[in-house]
Write a structure and sequence with these properties.
It is elongated and about 50 Å long. The chain is mainly alpha-helical. It has helices at 3-30, 36-67, 71-80, 86-94, 98-107. It is 81% helix and 0% strand. Helix 1 (3-30) packs antiparallel against helix 2 (36-67).
């Protein structure tokens, strides 16, 4: 598996775990008094968060060569890690290879 594909998978998983933590586990803890959700989802999200950050840093060179990433885009991808759905946007719009993007544009009827 190449590093770009791994980053795409981790960015989706990180964003979903963040949403589950915010929308399910934390309300259960603070409204329902059940801490088990936060105790399970919290560490999973933490590991995925660290994985996302590590993959962005590790993939920087590959992304620069394959996708034309620059330092600014890398910093923005790292900032995206602290926003609930931003890693989904990074995966959707910035981690596509140019050929995949062109194929998708050509499929859209005029």
């Amino acid at each position: 598996m190449d590093i770009v594909r791994a980053l795409r998978i981790v960015s989706i998983a990180e964003a979903i775990s963040f949403l589950v933590l915010l929308l399910l586990a934390m309300p259960l803890k603070y409204i329902g008094g059940e801490e088990v959700g936060v105790q399970v989802v919290g560490p999973v999200h933490g590991i995925l968060f660290m994985g996302y950050v590590a993959f962005v840093v590790l993939a920087r060179g590959v992304l620069r060569d394959q996708l034309g990433w620059n330092g600014r885009r890398t910093v923005l991808a790292l900032i995206a890690s602290v926003l609930p759905v931003a890693p989904l946007l990074v995966e959707r719009h910035w981690l596509k290879k140019p050929a995949e993007t062109l194929d998708r544009v050509e499929e859209v009827p005029a």
